[in-house]
Amino acid sequence: MSDVTRIAEQVTTALGGSANIQDIENCMTRLRIGVADQDAVDAAALKAVDGVLGVVEDQTMQVILGPGLVDEVADEMGRISRTTVRMEGADSAVPEEQAADGPGASGLTASQLAARGDEIRTERKRANQTPLRNFLRRIANIFLPLIPALIACGIIAGLNGVLTNLTVKGITPWAAGITPALGAVASGFMSLIAVFVGMNAAKEFGGTPILGGAVAAIIPFAGIAKVTVLGQALAPGQGGVIGALLAAVLAAFVERWARRWCPRSLSMLVVPTLTVLVAGLVTIFVFMTLAGWISTGIGSLANWLLESGGAASGFVLGGLFLPLVMFGLHQALIPIHTTLIEQAGYTILLPVLAMAGAGQVGATVAVYMRAKHNASLRNTIKSALPAGVLGVGEPLIYGVTLPLGRPFITACVGGAFGGGFIGLFDQLGTTVGSTAIGPSGWALFPLVNGARGIGAAALVYAGGLLVGYLAGWAATYFFGFSKEGLAALNASEADEQRSDLIGAELDPQA
């Protein structure tokens, strides 16, 4: 039996068997699995599967496997459970729910630290079940399925940019015939992204996807330029994904309202017509103008933050991103990133926020060096660190820094310094952006771009990672532990076992 088959079978069993699996969504590093009965899931057995890097217990179970392996396991689980596997979006730089505040070293071995991490994660999950955060999750569900296409088009756009520059300099004259084709491949999706947002939004809010897409398609339609609102002609694409989101949500509500009173015999004609007509007219005369103002404001604010605030803004953004995730508010950034990509071709916020992951890597290395006698924790770090470097932060956060408490805070300090470094260069005119959302760490390199080209952006991003690593390491190594906490962390497992045996012998009830 191959490792893939073994993992798929064990995960399926721990989830309550094939009959308990309703749907499987496959993204870059994790599986999101809908289950019929959450009480039938054996979370402990799921976490114990060799190859599973982490588990997020939520309304949808999330099983973290890492890049590459997740695709193979998803296909095998789909075959075992006879469930269609859907490709979803990529993971963000950090997990979907975290806590930034631990009580200190509550355990000594890797298993004890992981148990504490699970406790904190459960507490945060319970605290995050608010109407606002549930709404933000729904917004995230609209944009996450678009991430694979954003990544693909972003990488192709970067390749096309390199070839175009080399062709202009006479280095690759043979590429002159292929760059227009690559440009079309890279830009086609972005020209119609409003339609895809509309379809996903309608589905998420209980409407028919194709009707949401039909209403959102008004926004990029070239003929919209003939319409005048408040004395101004509308422009194709005005309002972008935000306008499409508003249009599709309205379409879903109109459709559901119409179905409540429309006779079944007429619903095929009346409901879709009324939905597209009402939502379409409101989109043209209200949403496109309103969303256009919002989109312009988002772009102006983001540029102002990093062009004017520079290092200070980057420091704050990089340092506070993980606490923002802790409160479940990071999902509000997804449409902002998408809007910036739609406007400028890249989002300048994501590389700054990705520095939070660099701080985690540096902090974890410091923990490894300080925990000289804790073999189980060092083994956990060695297995999880490569994934952390590539931007998969869950194993490091839930298994190392978060349950230790103070190292999580010092990791945020590392992220702040990395963000400040990139913010400084943004202020100096060397902007660093990402042409897609999802990847972070080293996985973001193929997607970086900026005002001075891919090469300059990649160099600054690499410098930010290095600063984040070093600052996270230094802050954790020198300030990440109290004397008592460090002593407890380095107590050997043999000593712990002997202490347990002595305690049992002294306990008259043992």
TrEMBL record:
GO CC field: plasma membrane
Domain PTS EIIC type-1 per the UniProt entry, residue ranges: 137-495
Keywords of this entry: Cell membrane, Kinase, Membrane, Phosphotransferase system, Sugar transport, Transferase, Transmembrane, Transmembrane helix, Transport
Any one GO molecular-function label of the UniProt entry: protein-phosphocysteine-N-acetylmuramate phosphotransferase system transporter activity
Main location as per UniProt: membrane
Active-site residue list: 27 (phosphocysteine intermediate)
Transmembrane segments: 142-162, 174-198, 210-229, 235-254, 266-294, 314-334, 346-369, 454-479
Membrane topology recorded in Swiss-Prot or TrEMBL: Multi-pass membrane protein
Ranges for region Disordered: 88-108
The keyword Nucleus belongs to this UniProt entry's keyword annotation: no
InterPro entries: Glu_permease_IIB, PTrfase_EIIB_Cys, PTS_EIIC, PTS_EIIC_1, PTS_IIB_1, PTS_Sugar-Specific_Components
The keyword Translocase is annotated on this UniProt entry: no
GO biological process, one term: phosphoenolpyruvate-dependent sugar phosphotransferase system
Stored Pfam families: PTS_EIIB (PF00367), PTS_EIIC (PF02378)
Domain PTS EIIB type-1, first and last residues per copy: 5-87
Protein location: Cell membrane
Protein's name according to its UniProt entry: PTS system IIB component (Glc family) /PTS system IIC component (Glc family)
